[in-house]
Amino acid sequence: MKRKWLAIALSMALAVGMLSGCGEDKKETASQAPSNTETEEPAPETEEPEESVDLLEDGGGKVLNIYAWNDEFQQRFEAYYPDYKDGKVGDVEIKFIINPNEGSNYQDKLDEALGKQESAAADEKVDLFMAEADYIAKYSSAAADVAVDVKALGLTDQDMSNMYDYTKQVATDENGVLKGVSWQACPAGMIYRRSMAKKYFGSDDPAAVQEQVSDWDKFVAACKTIKEKSKGKDFMMAGPNDMHRIYTNNDSTKFVEGDALTFTPGSEQWVDNTKKYCDEGYVMNPTMGLWSEDWTKQMGAKGHVFAFFGPAWFISFTMSDGSGAKKNDDGTYKHEDGKDSYGDWGLCLGPNPFNWGGTWIMAAKGTDNAALIKDIMLKMTCDQTILYNISKDKQDYVNGKEACEKLSADGITAPFLGDQDMIGTLKESAEKISMANLTIYDQACIESAEGDFADYFSGKSSKEDCIKKWQADVQAKFPNLTV
What we know:
seven-stranded mixed sheet; 20 helices; 12% strand; single chain; alpha+beta; four-stranded antiparallel sheet; globular
């Protein structure tokens, strides 16, 4: 019965719109007001008291079950949570249930487990689970009612005061209840090949490269320069989907309002501009998809692609491996001249900074480990020293403003980026991220588009036909939507 209820509740959540994207004009730096301190006394600062929340009682559980799609959080938990030792925290066994994220496999397995939560034996209940930005609204929704208010666990506004606002915004339900917290933030930029930058623009310095691509007109001019100087052998980007998230994340409207599915202005811009880039020869292969073998090869020493676009996790997980460098047992990489591209990369914000992804930690309703979960969330997402060490060791952009300031001040650099200050480069972007337009449909809308427009980019189909295909594919996943 509970499983049936969950399916109904999650379908109700389809009506909830909480969307992603940060338009250029959405969040600007506030102007500094003129100072009147000589003639007026400033009003005393007062702190509004937090609303009281009934704390969840701890059930004394002896097993903590953590659902995830990969071992990213597991690596960080086992290395940095101070009370973890030999598979346990005290007398509580820690169990990670990993279901890879291909298709909807992870969500399907998680939904099945959450649907059995009421009847499950104590040691088999879901306690913690991970959720990505593309679908977190599904699990934070009040209609779904599967995640615990973090304040009911005992976290306070003061505990979370160093977090970037958007990381709380995206995990807050329609009633203003925060359901998840994250140790990472995901501001993203343009990751460029330094050796090509020297060859085509005369410098590999991030400030100099940023000047070449600081707006869309300059970006197009840079594409043309690479094509002409390389005689068509090198390309600005590998495939048509490489810049997709820049457009959708900076979109001004939602994919879905009510039940109405819309091909958004940002999606239109992505399709129109990318078609021009493909036709002009700025894209290596109009049908090359993200994560494909050919796409990854272009990150290596023999690659012919100048730039990729992504956040810190993309650099440390995808590009570091794609560079061809040998990975050591401790997770670091060994560079060999001529054999890999590790260190031959730099980072700038590009024509339009954006955000991509992120992982949130959520407590499942029905958990019998409330006290331990509170401590895990507190230490792994609020402790600035732990966040500092995660970033220093793992190259994460962490969700702690104090930790990020200290990382830059201490000169902590990214070896993959030629020892560049990655945190300092992305800080400006991190402060401007908004996820106000996120909906539970975003993953389906974005991922469907990345396959459905390949024929248009390669000249085999019309834009209108591809939009119709996209609409049909999204509706197949969400039959409640209308066009």
